[in-house]
Write a structure and sequence with these properties.
With about 190 residues, the protein is mostly helical. It contains 13 helices and no strands. α6 packs parallel to α7 and α10 packs parallel to α12. The model has no long low-confidence stretch (mean pLDDT about 90).
Length: about 190
Amino acid sequence: SAELQADKEVVLEALWRCGLPLQYASDNLRADKDFVLEVVRKSGRALQYASDKLRSDREVVLEAVRGDGVSFQYASDNVRGDKDVVLEAVRQHGFALRFASDNLRADKEVVLEAVRRAGLAFQYASDNLRAHKDFVLEAVGEDGEALKYASAELQADKEVVRCAVLQDGTAFRFADQTLHADKDLVLLAA
């Protein structure tokens, strides 16, 4: 009933029992910052049911991503450009980089943090970073599988491939075919 959907105690009790009651809460509760903060502390993904205004609220989004980086996908565009929020999101879930603003997907610190959590998150880095040799060396040094999303030129670069293979021998499968005949790299990958 509408009365129960507007009752904070009832909705919070449902949260503790079921997990995502915010979707059943009244519009007033979905717009109540204190209430939503309490809910996203328990379940970050409940952010998807918060009011538009609260999905744009830095404090609410930061609280949600602290517990669940995946919840970052529900943040509004203006928060997706907040470096502190994005860093926290990618620390919790590297693939949250996918939802960051273009500027932050070109930010070395943000991308490297995402790659530390999930090497394949490198696919969401800007084209410039994926073609920047020094940065790619750092990325594959954190997770060799990041080589998969490096520029074609760098996938054919022996130094980059060697660094990736040292970190993870299976990364050799992402090296350019011209390097598959390189005895030193093949032995390193084995």
